[in-house]
TrEMBL record:
The keyword Chloroplast does not apply. It comes from Sphingobacterium humi. Residues 1-18 form the signal peptide. Keywords: Receptor, Signal. GO terms for molecular function: siderophore uptake transmembrane transporter activity. Residues 118-227 form the TonB-dependent receptor plug domain. Gene3D superfamilies: Carboxypeptidase-like, regulatory domain, TonB-dependent receptor, plug domain. This is TonB-dependent receptor plug domain-containing protein. InterPro entries: CarboxyPept-like_regulatory, Plug_dom, Plug_dom_sf, TonB-dep_rcpt-like.
Length: 917
């Protein structure tokens, strides 16, 4: 009996292995026209889960347990699908695929968190594929985003681009969500997306999808202005070594364009290596380094009124730093007159109105370091437990030096950001956890640092008889007494008071700048010490196998912001501030009328511990197929944004008696004591100083800041005509409530006597985030046409518009968007013998528009711009390489994307690419 038992045990152990004895197929797939290896081609066994992909040489090895004969399903976007019956595994397969148009095959996921064709998407969605990245004339995929329909950008520097859709454009847009491989790509403390700083490397982009407008119902808070979902390449699918080396030059013909930087080299190097060791384990490593002389912001427009530095003694240029220190010199004039009555006829007429004088500012070039560099590295491990269950571990780290525009310009030196993920996923569910950690490094805040530099080399006023302003006043009176007119006297007075002024770029200047900028804000310097962290865990389940008659997707999300600025950004002197968010979402879809009508609705409930009530958002959509490849869509979307951590909690001194502030009552009452010493609008305080009439003072009415919301309706139509022409048109209308903007206010802590506003040293100025009381409406329309012209020629054109109604004049609402954009593209992905040549050209046109920067950094008209980019490439087939020559803004007509941002000229480059064409 024991022997029989042993025999039964052996049979039971061997039976699974006998039933799953594996077959192995080898083969190679090529492009039939060019005979190039066809990479990342899917090879699957029909009616079986077994599958694999070709490597970078077109080779594949497929393991499966099904008995011969088997049918192989071979497919990839850009090629005709094939089915091949294989009788045995004795000989390696040699397969050739015919290229095909991709228009009808494009699929998207982010529109509904499930796979669907782009044509049948319920909302407006734009897409960039890996092939389009390869053929683009731009050297960075973030620059490509500018050409998408509905998209507007603000470029703060070479390494920092902010994206938005449907108006309200600004640097560091907290109302736009950027997701990279399922992770929210926002800075934990500041809450705005980090662009390409820790995004995908240029060689690792598989797909980018961009949803225009409201998207909170699926992706949570801060999705008011859209969501961009970026997906990296799967190492099981995209294997081998890839290299991209770009050498360029910018600041061409700089003197003609009033650019202070001479022609300089640009370096952009990227490398990627991926390998699948077997059917179970794969990994990839990415690295990219970018270095260049950055573009310079040199807008000298006066923020305090008309006239330049030779005309207005109170001149404060937008990109001149230090001039925010401004004082009415009348008390000094009056004191001089009291000391010498003979001066009365000269001085008394001057005292009839205020005489504001600003300290002399420093221009950006020579003050901020324009040596830009970014280094980022990414590694990912994947393990397949089964064909339907996979574990992923990844880490991305970025560091460098760039400049960012907000209420002033920020020189971000030696910043460090890391993002680390663990994920377990199957076809129907996933659980993902990740953390983002930031270190602000030695960030220099341009405006306040320059003000403190001025105070360090010569104090504005020492409280007695010395200082820059008393010297200025003395020289001013002396010049008037010797016959100079007022304008001449002011110029002479400035020259006298500025004696000994430190020259930007000098050793003494740089040492003082370093000392101030590396002393924390809490200790009297300007360094902020942001070491904030974000922790996030998400679970999602697709019920398609459990509820076959209805498309049901549900998910849960938990997020923790651990705000740690050492009392330099937030009131976190004692310990870090912890902000939790809890979310749940549900998406329901149903197909009717023989699948010609698709209805979908989504709901999301979010709770943020900074705010009392949870927030419910929703989306409803209907897509009707009116004919083959013709779809009519309608959607309603409700979106919201909890105030960002900065909008709620910022507590940063940004100049002389001046603060940038969040709008929570925790700050306004507990820290600034607005409930005891009422705030007034800064404009009315300045009017009171001019008129000496207290009746002109207007109290600033405030309340605890609340989430802002938008309700948006969209009607669109998309069609594929004759398999070669894709047309998409749309119109939208949105209503914003509790819109978060900024207001400049003032109060006098310790007294409610309004006369304190006559002396700048006795009152404080705050730039405060708050909810506007008026409803703000936006609307617009758009159209795009893409044409397959045959023989790999394609043409694209899109037009879109955005308009603002009921502008809330009581706050700066930063619409910052032109009324329309026009983008065009024409190119060929392969022509000539064996299709070794390719080219692409793009054109972007924006008319002039008004732009205002939050925090009072500046506002004005951004001139119209026409930007043309172009490239031509040649493949070296035997070396699996390619050479590209191209340029961005090739006409070298400098342009800017916003007030206080840099003016951007041409960059011309040559690239060498290995194993990516």
């Amino acid at each position: 009996m024991r022997n029989i038992a042993y025999l039964m045990l052996v049979i039971c152990m061997l039976t699974p292995f006998a039933g799953f004895s594996q077959q192995i197929l080898h083969g190679n797939i090529k492009n039939q026209l060019t005979q190039e290896p066809a990479t990342a081609i899917s090879i699957r066994v029909k009616d079986d889960r077994a599958g694999t992909f070709t490597d970078d040489k077109g080779n594949f090895q497929l393991r499966f347990s099904k008995a011969f004969p088997v049918t192989l399903l071979i497919s990839a976007i850009g090629y005709e699908k094939q089915e091949i019956v294989v009788q045995n595994s004795q000989q390696a397969l040699q397969i050739q695929l015919n290229p095909a148009s991709t228009m009808a095959e494009e699929v998207v996921i982010s529109a509904s968190r499930s796979v669907q064709t782009k044509l049948s998407s319920p909302v407006t969605i734009e897409q960039i594929s890996a092939k389009e990245v390869q053929n683009s004339p731009q050297i960075n995929y973030m620059d490509m985003v500018q050409g998408l329909r509905g998209v507007d950008v603000t470029v703060s520097s070479l390494g920092f681009t902010s994206v938005t859709t449907r108006g309200f454009n600004t640097s560091g847009n907290t109302n736009f969500t950027q997701i990279v491989d399922g992770m929210d790509n926002q800075a934990p403390g500041l809450n705005f997306p980090l662009g390409s700083v820790i995004g995908l490397s240029q060689l690792d982009v598989d797909n980018i999808e961009l949803l225009s407008g409201a998207s909170s119902a699926l992706y949570g808070s801060r999705g008011l202005n859209g969501t961009m979902v970026m997906t990296g390449k799967d190492p099981f699918k995209y294997k081998g070594l890839s290299v991209l080396v770009t050498q360029g030059v910018n600041h061409i013909n700089n003197k003609k364009n009033n650019d202070p930087v001479s022609s300089s080299p640009v370096y952009d190097w990227a490398i990627r290596y991926a390998n699948a060791i077997n059917d179970k384990f794969a990994y990839k490593i990415n690295a990219q380094y970018t270095q260049a002389k950055d573009w310079v912001a040199n807008d000298t427009q006066n923020k305090n009124g008309p006239g330049g530095p030779d005309v207005d003694p109170n001149y404060n240029g937008i990109n001149m730093y230090g001039g925010a220190t401004s004082t009415d010199i009348n008390p000094f004039l009056y004191a001089a007159m009291m000391g010498n009555q003979d001066l009365a006829p000269l001085i008394e007429p001057l005292l009839a109105k205020p005489n504001y004088v600003a300290r002399t500012g420093y221009p950006e070039y020579g003050y901020l370091d324009n040596n830009a560099n970014i280094f980022k590295v990414n590694a990912e491990l994947r393990y397949r437990f089964t064909s339907n269950l996979e574990a992923i571990a990844s880490g991305t780290f970025g560091t460098g030096n760039i400049v960012y525009t907000n209420d002033t310009r920020y020189q971000i030196n030696d910043f460090k950001v890391g993002q680390y993920r663990l994920e377990l996923k199957s076809d129907d569910w996933f659980v993902r956890t990740y953390t983002t950690r930031e270190n602000s490094g030695n960030t220099l805040i341009a405006g306040p640092t320059a003000q403190l530099i001025n105070e360090a080399w010569k104090v504005s006023y020492d409280g007695q008889v010395g200082g820059w302003y008393p010297e200025y006043t003395e020289a001013f009176i002396g010049a008037l007494a010797t016959g100079s007119n007022q304008q001449q006297a002011h110029l002479l007075a400035r020259q006298f008071a500025d004696q000994g002024r430190l020259v930007e770029g000098s050793a003494e200047f740089n040492e003082l700048k370093k000392q101030i900028s590396q002393t924390p804000i809490s200790e009297g310097g300007t360094l902020f010490l942001d070491r904030s962290k974000l922790y996030n865990t998400e679970f999602q389940y697709n019920f398609r196998n459990l509820i076959p008659f209805l498309d049901v997707i549900a998910g849960l999300n938990w997020r923790l912001y651990n705000l740690d600025s050492k009392n330099t950004l937030f009131p976190d002197k004692e310990k870090p501030i912890r902000v939790n968010e809890y979310s749940g979402y549900l998406s329901l879809g149903k197909r009717l009328l023989e699948d010609r009508l698709t209805l979908n609705t989504s709901f999301r409930l979010d709770k943020n511990t900074l705010f009392g009530d949870p927030k419910l958002t929703s989306r409803a959509s209907a897509v009707l197929q009116t004919a083959v490849q013709n779809y009519l869509r309608f959607s309603y979307q409700n979106a919201y944004s909890f105030p960002s951590n900065i909008q709620a909690l910022q507590n940063t001194m940004n100049g002389y008696n001046s603060f940038s502030s969040g709008g929570s009552n925790l700050l306004l009452n507990d820290h600034y004591h607005f409930n005891e010493f009422p705030p007034y609008t800064l404009a009315s305080v300045q009017e009171f100083q001019n008129t000496n009439d207290p009746s002109v003072l207007k109290k600033f009415v405030y309340d605890d800041i609340k989430p802002q919301t938008v309700n948006s309706f969209e009607l669109g139509y998309a069609a594929l005509i004759a398999k070669r022409v894709m047309v998409d048109v749309l119109g939208y209308y949105s209503t914003w409530e509790n819109f978060i903007g900024y207001a400049n206010v003032a109060n006098s802590p310790g007294t409610d006597d309004v006369n304190a506003f006559k002396d700048q040293s006795k009152y404080m100025v705050y730039n405060i985030a708050f909810n506007g009381g008026e409803t703000v409406n936006t609307y617009g329309y758009a159209a795009s046409v893409r044409v397959d012209l045959g023989k790999n020629f394609t043409g694209k054109v899109n037009y879109y518009s955005d308009f603002l109604k009921n502008k809330n004049n009581s706050q700066i609402n930063n619409f910052n968007t032109p009324n329309y954009h026009v983008n065009m593209e024409f190119g060929n992905s392969g022509f000539g013998k064996k299709q070794v040549w390719s080219f692409n050209t793009t054109l972007r046109y924006k008319p002039g528009y008004h732009y205002a920067v939050a925090g009072g950094l500046g506002e004005g008209e951004v001139p119209a711009s026409t930007v043309i980019d172009a490239q031509i490439s040649y493949k070296i087939l035997k070396a699996r390489s390619g050479i590209r020559i191209g340029g961005t803004n090739i006409t070298n007509k400098y342009y800017s994307t916003g007030i206080a941002n840099p003016r951007i000229g041409a960059m011309y480059y040559i690239s060498y690419a290995y194993n990516i064409f």
